């Protein structure tokens, strides 16, 4: 808040209400969070268990806070220490037949509960749903990893942006929008707008470079040529 006011030349509360700054701020945060999600990196990832029951194929995701888009679904069985996780493809609802074309109800072979061949996420009646195909024959648990669609702060003191090193980007972006409502005289407005625009361009360039990779490149152990394990790896 202080940074935005500084960029805008410290307008009075009556000129630029603090609540207005918060509204613009939440919009800008949502905008940049969406930019993070548009990359192929896992910047905003959460997970929740999905408990399926016999003879029921559709489940609501309303209990999953801030569910955005599914990333991967895996089998889960904490009671079995030897359980090997298996990935369940998440596909479009109309493509289910491409992965399974059999009886509606799945058969649990050798007491293996995870019969799902695919899952589909869609909106229905204003609620996000997930469909399990084929219909579960026995109870089972899966883990859904998903992107967050938003990350609102619980208090004004909390940070709603996961990359706090780019708080300057948020300040400049919010200030540029708020400046138009400050009622500055033309000369002052042009001077402030030019300064904010220049700062924002620098922040944007750095931000766009940073979010394209969520780890440092070339920091893993390199495999040497003709080392002890080279032959086994190569052939």
Question: How widely separated are the two ends?
Answer: 60 Å
Tell me the count of domains.
Answer: 2
| Biggest β-sheet: strands ordered side by side in the sheet | 1-7-3-4
Mean pLDDT: 85
The proportion of residues forming helix, as a percent range, comes to 25-40%
SS class: alpha+beta
Hey, roughly how much beta strand do the residues contain?
A: 15-25%
What does this structure look like?
- The protein is of the alpha+beta class and 235 residues long.
- It has five helices and seven strands; from the N terminus they run ααβββββββααα.
- The protein has helices spanning 2-7, 18-38, 167-179, 186-210, 230-234, and strands at 45-52, 58-60, 67-76, 87-88, 118-124, 127-133, 140-148.
- It has a four-stranded antiparallel sheet with strand order 1-7-3-4, with no helix packed on it. Strands 2-6-5 form a three-stranded antiparallel sheet, with no helix packed on it.
- Strand 5 and strand 6 (127-133) form a beta hairpin.
- The longest helix is centred in the last third of the chain and has 25 residues, at 186-210.
């Amino acid at each position: 808040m202080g940074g935005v006011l500084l960029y805008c030349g410290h307008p009075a509360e009556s000129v630029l209400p603090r609540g207005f700054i918060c509204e613009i701020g939440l919009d800008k945060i949502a905008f940049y969070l969406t930019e993070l999600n548009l990359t192929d990196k896992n910047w905003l990832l959460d997970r929740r268990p999905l408990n399926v029951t016999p003879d029921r194929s559709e489940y609501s995701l309303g209990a999953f806070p801030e569910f955005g888009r599914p990333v991967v679904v895996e089998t889960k069985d904490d009671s079995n220490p030897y359980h090997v996780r298996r990935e369940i493809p998440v596909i479009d609802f109309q493509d289910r037949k491409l992965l399974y074309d059999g009886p509606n109800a799945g058969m649990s072979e050798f007491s293996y509960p995870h019969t799902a061949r695919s899952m589909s996420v869609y909106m229905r009646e204003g609620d996000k749903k997930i469909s399990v195909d084929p219909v579960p024959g026995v109870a089972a648990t899966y883990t859904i990893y998903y992107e967050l669609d938003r990350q609102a702060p619980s208090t004004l003191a909390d940070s709603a942006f996961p990359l706090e090193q780019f708080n300057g980007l948020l300040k400049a972006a919010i200030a540029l929008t708020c400046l138009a409502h400050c009622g500055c005289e033309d000369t002052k407005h042009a001077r402030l707008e030019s300064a904010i625009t220049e700062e924002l361009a620098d922040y944007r360039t750095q931000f766009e470079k940073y979010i394209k990779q969520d780890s440092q490149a070339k920091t893993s152990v390199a495999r040497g040529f003709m080392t002890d394990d080279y032959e086994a790896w190569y052939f």
